[in-house]
UniProtKB/TrEMBL annotation:
It comes from the Eukaryota. Gene3D superfamilies: Vaccinia Virus protein VP39. This is Methyltransferase FkbM domain-containing protein. Transmembrane segments: none annotated. It comes from Effrenium voratum. The lineage of its organism: Eukaryota, Sar, Alveolata, Dinophyceae, Suessiales. Residues 64-220 form the Methyltransferase FkbM domain.
Length: 255
């Protein structure tokens, strides 16, 4: 089985990933507040209206939150996250989520180059609910704009003068609920410049969070608005996720 292997460190549209929500069916909790302009939605961890995939065979599913220009996806298909030839059924799919519009061209090109396998979710911020939000651009191309963030006090956003765009938010929990089978091998990479302190407490409330086999999480604990309370909430979320058999190895990406 692919899920027993040791892993190394290192045609769907955005509209199709959304469902109309009946508030009577939604379990909501308050989102943590770190943002200059608070996203106008709450954690949506479970919803009976979400439709499960009808896909008939298991695959590797690589969900890349903070996909940039596809550089981490390139490592995935080069076997840095495990031998893709050993994926269930020998097949894989990748969902590339990135809010920075500077990378839209590259991500859409990957979707065209890998039809039915790569799904570009360009110009969408990974979050715990749906709505719109400000996104602050790191202007430094020398490190591939890696510090772009939803958080107005993100160091690289501050250095760049807090230049911002408005983007829709994608509920990552819903993406998992609607596109993952229990027998898939699911890798979730989370490098979202502080928004993990919102996403993980919500993901930990998802009753099927164990659909995720491995999460590669980069924690941005040094951001000014990340409090001890938020760090504790993230640690508790990780503990809860691991109790649901989500493997969370130490992870840091230099790209």
């Amino acid at each position: 089985m692919f899920r027993s292997l040791p892993f190394l460190f290192g045609a769907v549209s955005a509209a199709n990933l959304r469902s109309n929500v009946s508030q009577s069916l939604v379990h909501q909790t308050s989102a943590l507040s770190f943002y200059q302009e608070e996203p106008q939605c709450q954690c949506m961890a479970n919803n009976a209206a979400w439709k499960k995939t009808t896909r008939e065979e298991a695959k590797c599913i690589f969900i890349d939150l903070g996909a940039a220009d596809g550089n981490t996806f390139a490592k995935f298909i080069e076997n840095d996250y495990g031998p893709v030839k050993n994926c269930p059924s020998g097949k894989w799919e990748a969902f590339l989520v990135e809010a920075n519009p500077q990378f839209t061209k590259e991500l859409n090109a990957l979707q065209e180059n890998f039809p039915g396998q790569v799904h570009s979710l360009a110009e969408h911020a990974a979050f715990s609910c749906e709505g719109t939000t400000s996104f602050f651009i790191d202007a430094d191309a020398s490190h591939n704009h890696w510090g772009s963030s939803l958080m107005s006090d993100a160091p690289d956003a501050v250095k760049s003068g807090k230049v911002k765009v408005t983007v829709p938010m994608l509920n990552v929990v819903q993406l998992i609920a609607e596109h993952v089978r229990p027998d898939d091998w699911v890798m979730l990479k989370v490098d979202i410049e502080g928004a993990e302190y919102n996403l993980l407490p919500c993901l930990a409330q998802f009753k099927e969070a164990g659909l995720v086999d491995r999460m590669y999480l980069e924690e941005h604990w040094w951001f000014p608005s990340i409090t001890e309370k938020s760090k504790s909430a993230l640690a508790e979320s990780k503990k809860n996720l691991m109790s649901m058999h989500v493997d969370i190895p130490k992870y840091y990406s230099a790209s």
